[in-house]
Amino acid sequence: MSLYCGIACRRKSFWCYRLLSTYVTKTRYLFELKEDDDACKRAQQTGAFYLFHSLAPLVQKSEHQYQAPQYSLLGLKPLGFGIQELERLLAKFGQDTQRIEDSVLIGCSEQHEAWFALDLGLSSSSSINASLQKPEMETELKGSFTELRKAVFQLNTKDASLLSTAQALLRWHDAHQFCSRSGQPTKKNMAGSKRVCPSNKIIYYPQMAPVVITLVSDGTRCLLARQSSFPKGMYSALAGFCDIGESLEEAVRREVAEEVGLEVERLQYSASQHWPFPNSSLMIACHATVKSGQTEIQVNLRELEAAGWFSHDEVATALRRSNPYPQQQNGTFWLPPKLAIAHQLIKEWVEKPACSTLPA
Q1: Range of the structural domain that residue 162 is part of
Q2: pTM for the full model?
Q3: What are the Nudix hydrolase domain coordinates in residue numbering (predicted)?
């Protein structure tokens, strides 16, 4: 009986293993690295590092695009900024290799090569000489530390996602080095998935602020608005932070009422996106329609610079513009770049205007 059970268990394990997808095995591997400091430290030995300086990622300019330094694989060994290269770099600039412990885990390849991010310009608990000199580092690394807000729309999707995740985690750790209850220094785990206060054992986890972004329609037109901080000529969907105690639906209705004085009748969830600016937000995109006959906009000038109704043809024309930063001429306007979820929300409406008339 025991032999049979052993065979059955082995067969079950075999089939369970065969049925696990690449996504599941990769996700479980990342979970292991987050929970096991020793496993994470071992992963650093064969991993690749994305470098930052004061939250600006190291990128290289290629024609009209930015690229994060590429990491190739020979077996499971990365080329580029592997740990040996990083240790050499830190030693050259008079830094202890213990600084590598300030890195955060940001993902892994399908072959389980772990990816980490390390900021060489932020102060930290593990380094006395907090900041390495930026110009010397750029010369050595043959790249430039560029503000992510400037580079993000000129990165490919993979690099944009990884660098956004990395910056958000690095910023969070920089801002949570002390316990809000005891005032004592907190300690990050090896992966950077949490911080713990040694004095009272309180665990702090990285967080995102929920933001609703809503494209309002009256059935034939959509409502676009701009803030004074937007680049000249850019219009987008309405957006605002969720208040404590609100549901998604309540937040959408309140934001639309606050910003343009309209009452939402129906809404439909579209998609979500992590957004690193200004301090890591979860953008929750929705389509909404307003009550028939109640389309007069009353702009809240404390929130917006302008808002207006735009026809299907006007918005479709704006989407077709190849230059994402056109010179504004004769009242023309432009829309957020393709990477932004606002662009996808507007594109959905243009391709299927009826999508915003469905009930919640």
Answers
A1: 23-124+132-173
A2: 0.84
A3: 206-333
